[in-house]
Structure formats: structure tokens, C-alpha cells
Amino acid sequence: MKRLVILGAGESGVGTALLGKEKGFKVFVSDKGSIKEKYKEVLIHNEIEWEEGRHTESKILNADVVMKSPGIPDKVTLVQKLIANNVSIISEIEFASQFTKANIIGITGSNGKTTTSMWTHHILKQGGLKVAMGGNIGDSFAKQVLDSNYEHFVLELSSFQLDGIKTFKPHIAIITNISPDHLDRYDYKFENYIASKFRIVMNQTKDDYLIYDADDDAITSYLKSHSVQSTLLPFSLTKKLEQGAYLENNNIKITIDNSQIIMSTANLALEGKHNIKNAMAASTVAHLLKIRNHTLRESLENFQGAEHRLENVLRINKVQYINDSKATNVNATYFALESMEAPTVWIVGGVDKGNDYKQLFPFVNENVKAIICLGVDNKKLFETFENMVDIIVETQFMSEAVKIAYKIAEAGDNVLLSPACASFDLFESYEDRGRQFKDSVRKL
């Protein structure tokens, strides 16, 4: 009986434990922190051995295979010992994909992957396909492989999940864009992070597809210097493409092997240039999987966006409050500020991952009337922006940030929470940060 050790008892860890047990592995789950009650109950009910608050090496180093939570870096001593012992260390995605014959659509990128995953799933579901969504979003992929008989999976994949694959091969891969993020996990080398994202295609053949942003320099230069076996389907807002999707006169045109469809962008469910790109990527998948044009058009128009991603919260005294808490890097905030068409009070800050704010300067100069810094350490934000705006203040409380914004904003303005930083200095997660923002707005 092979021994499967799982490090981290979150959604993916517990899902893998259940699938592993079903497939005949001897399973042991270890979490250095505390395990949530709902996950503990599942482990106990299924008679799976577990521990919390520690990693007992004697029970871990003898594993045949280890499924490591994406949050645990490779440089941790325990992981280094496993590597030295030649133990196979994989991600949930790698483990679960061995046990399904479903068609897999894998979606990665620095930004836009959640929206693109949800939109793709929405279109395919409306088109009548038996499709589930997992990976970085929703229910555990492993648990869904165990429980249900899906024919298609849409998986949102982080670079950390892709670092833990060996044979995983999506039939359709999407790279939405690549901008510097998580560089602390990649020795502060952008090229290491880019290579990590491109692991999504490493097992693909010419019968598989890579859908990607042809306007993205990091992606296009990687493709020029590395051979990729996949059939390439680019999308672009600026170039006319023979294969793939492009924008012409406010129409999305998608061509795959001489078959073309044309859709207007006039009624897209989500605003902003970046969402035209997300729609192109999702529509290209739909076209590949032969979803009817009528269904596709409807699905592009009636989709509800992701929570905490440019989410309109309330309009109070003709001021629109917008929650973009999911913007945990500068590139995501770039999209948010780019789509602001009115004067904006911008709430920014948190744990800075080595941010370079230069690309935001044009938008700040043009549209931002005040900046509210919401972080433990706001020194860098002050040094960067204090000469660009009339008002820049700092606070450590969301409720206070919203009250200050309420005082500054005038009719016709936006108040935008788009932090460009991780949330862990003041909040549990970006979701917690977004919910606190929405609660504070509703209390105004």
C-alpha cells in the first residue's frame, strides 16, 4: 500500500485525502497550523489519520508521495529533507488529474484568471456541458474527481500549483497575462516566475491548445525563445490575427481553422479593456468546444463577475463605491485605474511584494484626486505619490478609510479599493478585506 502524505489540511488537502483513500493509498494529513473544524470532521468521519500544530517527521519522511499545499515554499527544511530523500512532491492538480478522463481547461496568469475561469465555466454550463470548476477557486478538484462524473473541468491555476506538476496536461491552456508577482518565491527573478507559468504547456502536444494574450511582452518574448508544442491561439486588442481572437470596430472576431464567429462587445457583462481580453479567452474555449453562437453571446452578456474584482458595491450621494480587494499586485490595480472614467478616491496599501508603482503614474495624474493608504507601513506609498495628489492620508482601519473617502468624494466621483498589495498585515485575506470594505460602505 503506497503511503500518501498531505501537508496542509485546507480545501485541496482534504479533497486529496478523500480521493487518495478511495484509490487505495494509506493517507496521513499533517498541518503545522490548526485545522478548521469542518475539515477535521471530514477527516474523522472518513477515518483518515491527521495531526495539527506540528509536522512529525517520522510520519512524513517515509512517504511514497507527498501532496504539498501551494502555500508551503520549497525552501522549508521539511520539504528540503523530502527532496533529499527523493520523495515525489506534487500538487493536488497533479494528483487528481491522474484519476479523471475529463477534458481539462487550465487557466493561469498574474491577473484575470479568476474572472476568465468563472466566465468560461458559465459559458460551458449554459451550453449544456457537464462542467465543474476547481483549482484555485471553488471546491477541491480532487474531491470533484472523486464525487462526480464531470466531462469537463475548468481549473484556475496559480504558479505554485503549476510548480507541483509532472505529467499534468490540460487539453486547453490559457495564459491571461504575466506581470511581476510573488517574486519572493522565485528568487526575485521575473524569468523564473514566467517559466513557472509556462509549465502549464510543458506536457501539451500539437493536439492541445494554448490561448494567450498576444499583447503581453513577457508571453510573446517567451514564445519567441522557447519551443512550445501546442497549437497557438492568441488574442489581441491591437493586432489583426489570422488564428485566434482580435478586436475590430468593437467586435470580437474569433477564427479557428477557417471557422469564424463575430460578437459585439457592446453588451459585455463586465466593463474595461481587460475584460474584453477575458471575454476573448473564454469565447475561444467555447468556440473550440463547439458551443452555439447564440448561447455564447447570451453568456457573455448575463455573466455575474467575481466577488472582490471591480465589484460595484453601492452608489451613495452619486458616489460609486467599488471593491477591487482582489487586486493584490500593481498590474491588477493598473486595470482598475485604467477603467475609472471619473475622479477617483483611491484606497491602496498592505503588504508590498516589491512593488514598482511607475506604471500607475499616468492614471494617478489623470484621475486620482486623493489617496488613502491602508497598511501597517505606508512609507513607500507616501514617497511615491505625495507629490502627485492634493490629499494623501493614512489609516489602519477599513471603517476609517471609508469614512475619510466619504468626506472627500463629491457627486460623480468613484471611491475605489484597489490595494495593489497583499492583505495579511491588517486582514485575514483579500476576501476579508473586501468584505470589511463592503460592510463599512453599507454602514455609511
Can you give a write-up of this model?
This protein is of the alpha/beta class. It has 3 domains: 3-90, NAD(P)-binding Rossmann-like Domain (Rossmann fold, 3-Layer(aba) Sandwich), CATH 3.40.50; 94-301, UDP-N-acetylmuramoyl-L-alanine:D-glutamate ligase (3-Layer(aba) Sandwich), CATH 3.40.1190; 311-442, Alpha-Beta Complex (Protein-Tyrosine Phosphatase, Chain A), CATH 3.90.190.20. It has 17 helices and 20 strands. The chain has helices at 11-22, 37-45, 57-60, 77-84, 92-97, 113-126, 141-147, 159-163, 190-197, 217-225, 273-288, 293-301, 330-338, 361-367, 379-385, 398-408, 430-442, and strands spanning 3-7, 26-31, 49-52, 65-68, 88-90, 103-108, 131-135, 152-156, 172-175, 209-213, 231-236, 244-248, 251-256, 259-264, 311-316, 319-323, 344-348, 368-374, 391-395, 414-417. It has a 9-stranded mixed sheet, with helices on one face. A 6-stranded mixed sheet has the order 15-16-20-17-18-19, with helices on both faces. A 5-stranded parallel sheet has the order 3-2-1-4-5, with helices on both faces. The radius of gyration is 22 Å and the shape is globular. The N and C termini lie far apart (60 Å). The relative contact order is 0.09. The model has no long low-confidence stretch (mean pLDDT 93).
Task: Name the assembly state.
Answer: single chain
Strand line-up across the major sheet: 7-8-6-9-10-11-12-13-14
Largest sheet: 9 strands, mixed
Strand pairing plus helix content: what structural class? alpha/beta
CATH level 1 name of the largest domain: Alpha Beta
- In the predicted model, the low-confidence regions spanning at least 5 consecutive residues are none
| Envelope shape | globular
Mean pLDDT: 93
Assign a percent range to the helix content: 25-40%
The number of helical segments is 17
Percent strand: 15-25%
Q: What's the Cα radius of gyration?
A: 22 Å
CATH third-tier fold name of the largest domain: UDP-N-acetylmuramoyl-L-alanine:D-glutamate ligase
CATH architectural arrangement of the largest domain = 3-Layer(aba) Sandwich
Our count of domains comes out at 3
Distance between the termini: 60 Å
Number of strands: 20
Task: Assign the CATH superfamily of the largest domain.
Answer: Mur-like, catalytic domain
Pathway: Cell wall biogenesis; peptidoglycan biosynthesis
Family: Belongs to the MurCDEF family.
Main location: cytoplasm
GO molecular function: ATP binding; UDP-N-acetylmuramoylalanine-D-glutamate ligase activity
